Amino acid sequence: MAVTDEAIEKIKGMIVSGALGPGDRLPKESELAAELGLSRNSLREAVRALSLIRILDVRQGDGTYVTSLDPQLLLEALSFVVDFHRDDTVLEFLAVRRILEPAATAMAALRIEESRLDALSAQLDALGDAPSVEELVACDLEFHRGIVQSSGNSVLCSLLDGLSGPTTRARVWRGLTQEDAVSRTLHEHRAIVAALRDRDAEAARSWATVHVASVEQWLRSTL
């Protein structure tokens, strides 16, 4: 394992230093192993590990390439890790979301386009007053993703996407066990849209905080 770690660090060093950039093809295995002073075995293991976390892209019959290193691509691994959470850590993920999402919503208030706001309102209107829990959760994911994308920060968007696994489950549980969860969620969504239309960053931040905190508070009382 130590040898593989060394190989990973050496490849990482080449990327960080700029010797290899996004989209670049790695030298042939034998050449790269000799250049880095590694065995071909340890190099192969390092490449396999780095491909799993989307740093490298192994193309059969073509070679190994550095990926685009786009934040959204690199943070895909976060959602994979998050899926292995224990029930008692859901609150910790929600706490992180409570920190990040209101900030992203406040940023969006200054940048979001009217066409996006119209789409969000239409999405809520299409749900009606009594959607199923499944419909509400699907809408909730798209609703918040649309707002966070308007923040203009791709890293923030990717982080919040990665955190959606356990928080989605929490929303489902809430919808199944709390009678007013659906109407409360719809009310909070409409309040967020209204604040965004007013370009009121602090109101948007406050309503987003209330929205996430209400799920967190409910879940804390049930665990």
From TrEMBL:
- Cited PANTHER family: TRANSCRIPTIONAL REGULATOR, GNTR FAMILY, UXU OPERON TRANSCRIPTIONAL REGULATOR
What this protein is called in its record is FadR/GntR family transcriptional regulator
Q: Name one Pfam family in it.
A: GntR
What InterPro entries does the annotation carry?
Answer: GntR_C (IPR011711), TF_FadR/GntR_C (IPR008920), Tscrpt_reg_HTH_GntR (IPR000524), WH-like_DNA-bd_sf (IPR036388), WH_DNA-bd_sf (IPR036390)
Q: Where is the HTH gntR-type domain?
A: 1-69
* Alphabetic keyword roster: DNA-binding, Transcription, Transcription regulation
Organism, scientific name? Streptomyces argenteolus
Q: Where would you find the membrane-spanning parts of this chain?
A: none
Question: SMART domains from the entry?
Answer: FCD, HTH_GNTR
